[in-house]
Automatic annotation (TrEMBL):
<keyword id="KW-0677">Repeat</keyword>
<protein>
    <recommendedName>
        <fullName>peptidylprolyl isomerase</fullName>
        <ecNumber>5.2.1.8</ecNumber>
    </recommendedName>
</protein>
<dbReference type="InterPro" id="IPR042282">
    <property type="entry name" value="FKBP6/shu"/>
</dbReference>
<dbReference type="GO" id="GO:0034587">
    <property type="term" value="P:piRNA processing"/>
</dbReference>
<dbReference type="InterPro" id="IPR011990">
    <property type="entry name" value="TPR-like_helical_dom_sf"/>
</dbReference>
<feature type="region of interest" description="Disordered">
    <location>
        <begin position="1"/>
        <end position="23"/>
    </location>
</feature>
<dbReference type="InterPro" id="IPR046357">
    <property type="entry name" value="PPIase_dom_sf"/>
</dbReference>
<dbReference type="Pfam" id="PF00254">
    <property type="entry name" value="FKBP_C"/>
</dbReference>
<dbReference type="GO" id="GO:0007283">
    <property type="term" value="P:spermatogenesis"/>
</dbReference>
<dbReference type="InterPro" id="IPR019734">
    <property type="entry name" value="TPR_rpt"/>
</dbReference>
<comment type="similarity">
    <text>Belongs to the FKBP6 family.</text>
</comment>
<keyword id="KW-0697">Rotamase</keyword>
<dbReference type="InterPro" id="IPR001179">
    <property type="entry name" value="PPIase_FKBP_dom"/>
</dbReference>
<keyword id="KW-0802">TPR repeat</keyword>
<feature type="domain" description="PPIase FKBP-type">
    <location>
        <begin position="25"/>
        <end position="114"/>
    </location>
</feature>
<dbReference type="GO" id="GO:0051879">
    <property type="term" value="F:Hsp90 protein binding"/>
</dbReference>
<dbReference type="GO" id="GO:0005737">
    <property type="term" value="C:cytoplasm"/>
</dbReference>
Length: 291
């Protein structure tokens, strides 16, 4: 398939993907390998990277032919792109790896992408301009930031995920003009509080995990996930009574939830070990008196 009409970028699909093609404003996660003309020499690759970083089209990816190729791809697709020099490294090449006027080949797998057009435009505005935007746009930007956070969370980059979740929260700090608007803002905040609670658990910061879990409960007292997170945080801090209270309330709401029930079993085991340790310490303290 000729993507340019002049043979400048040719595509050979190796594996089809699903969904919509990559939009021009997207950030993409790809696995790639670049070769000289006839597959004889590998000159660049991120194939050994377990979690490829998100790269912004037009900013992190500046090779014209590769950008044209990516815009033709869908999530999960793998393809080979053959780039003529004018769509790759041009007349000069890129010494010493790439000679002048060289056709290059890229094998690319599109793992994921996030369309960040709304976010890019939003953060170029002043605070006053951001405040004047319709709530619908603000909520969309916050949702995209949360999507970025989720991406980094699942790649186990918890600090980056935490920062993206907090960035989304900062967007939602505006005052609402109606109860309906506030309800929409709170629904978006609730998801972020829950995400931050879990992320702080992964970062081994149970105090912060508890803080965001309790903020979620302020918005929804019957949220089983928030109760569960608070119970986990308290157990981590060895606050066994508080942990039992949160987990028991969560279990009342979801009696067949395996995670909640397993956490209660863990609590019982930890509490038993704690009491045995306390008993042993008391015995050691009083043994000299008895003797």
């Amino acid at each position: 398939q000729d993507l340019t009409g002049d043979g400048g970028v040719r595509k050979e699909q190796l594996c089809p993907g699903t969904g919509q093609p990559v939009p021009p404003s997207a950030s993409v996660a790809v696995k790639y390998s670049g070769y000289l003309g006839n597959w004889t020499k590998l000159f660049c690759s991120n194939g050994n990277s377990k979690y490829p970083r998100l790269m912004k089209l037009g900013k992190d990816i500046t090779l014209l032919g590769l950008e044209i190729g990516l815009l033709s791809m869908t999530k999960g697709e793998a393809a080979v792109f053959i780039l003529k020099p004018e769509y790759a490294y041009g007349q000069r090449g890129c010494p010493p790896s790439i000679p002048p006027n060289t056709t290059v080949l890229f094998r690319v797998e599109l793992l994921d992408f996030i369309d960040s057009e709304e976010c890019d435009a939003f953060f170029e505005l002043t605070y006053e301009q951001q405040d004047r935007l319709p709530l619908e746009k603000v909520l969309k930007v916050a949702a995209t930031e949360r999507e970025f956070g989720n991406y980094f969370f699942y790649k186990q980059r918890f600090k980056v995920a935490k920062d993206r979740y907090k960035r989304a929260l900062s967007i939602l700090g505006r005052s609402s003009s109606s109860k309906a608007e506030q309800s929409q803002i709170n629904a978006s905040k609730l998801l972020l509080f829950l995400n931050l609670s879990l992320t702080y658990l992964k970062l081994e910061r149970p105090d912060q995990a508890l803080k965001y879990g309790e903020l979620a409960l302020e918005m929804d007292q019957g949220n089983a996930k928030a109760l569960f997170r608070c119970g986990q945080a308290c157990l981590y801090m060895r606050e066994y009574s508080k942990s039992r209270d949160f987990l028991a309330r969560a279990q009342c709401l979801q009696p067949f939830n395996r995670d909640i029930n397993n956490e209660l079993k863990k609590l019982a085991r930890y509490y038993k070990e704690h009491m045995e340790m306390e008993k042993e310490m008391c015995c050691q303290m009083f043994n000299p008196l008895n003797s």
